Amino acid sequence: MDLYLKGKTAVVTGASQGIGRAITKELANEGVTVLAIGRNADLLHSLKEEIITAKGAAPVLLIQDFLEPDAPQKIAATAIEKLGWVDILINNAGRSQPIEVTGSEEVWKAAMTLDFERPRQLTEALLPHFMERKQGAILNLASSYELRSINGSAVAKAAIVSWSKALSAQLGPYGIRVNSLQPGLIDTENIRRFFTSEERKKFAEAEIPLGDFGHAEDMANMAVFLVSPRAGYITGTVSVVDGGMKHYPF
Ligand SMILES: NC(=O)c1ccc[n+]([C@@H]2O[C@H](COP(=O)([O-])OP(=O)(O)OC[C@H]3O[C@@H](n4cnc5c(N)ncnc54)[C@H](OP(=O)(O)O)[C@@H]3O)[C@@H](O)[C@H]2O)c1
Fold this sequence. Notes:
alpha/beta; Rossmann fold
């Protein structure tokens, strides 16, 4: 199926590994030029090489710590300068952050900043551009909020989902779509550190009807569809990709 993405441009945060890397590769395969952002320069350079070898659209790399206060403005300015225009924004950078019941303010603040404030600020920095062009597709990576313990990232993502829905109502008249994408347990560095392979197997057998953790590519398939013109009537939604998971861990 042609997703009608060829020649478009995208900004992807957290592109160096995991879900963001898979999304960047899939977009590039579809002919999208991506501004690929992360802190790990080696991983970003290897991503670019892999894409070029696979004859995808060569990404533009930006080494940037998203926690820096001026990161959203820098990313938006670089995107317009290097890409010319932006069709798609994927707010993917994030990190699971388990927190004690009486967690420190510092840890809470870091989680809320990375997983809610910066994606909101980056979106707002690009909104005048999207509104002027009367088009745009924004996708925000979410998380399950039905956890058994407190996770700063999941709380921030609950805010993302609420904000995304409201934003979609405001931006619909401008032809701008805003959706959220909620992973279950996807086999990336973010999650791997919490499970031994034995624990993963045991958990998946008990809780995941499809039998195992998902792959980053499972998320990328849905992400690329949601930001494509094929999803032109889809906005304000939360799509869940979780293998049918019954109960969430942690
Ligand atoms: N995997 C799952 O099961 C799961 C579950 C729930 C939610 N999620 C969400 O899905 C998204 C992708 O997660 P993932 O599993 O693919 O994680 P991952 O493999 O750990 O990748 C996280 C990405 O975010 C970037 N990042 C983290 N902190 C950053 C910072 N300060 N500045 C710039 N970039 C930063 C990392 O890049 P650098 O290290 O290069 O900076 C990396 O590219 C996240 O928002 C996560 O919360 C994932």
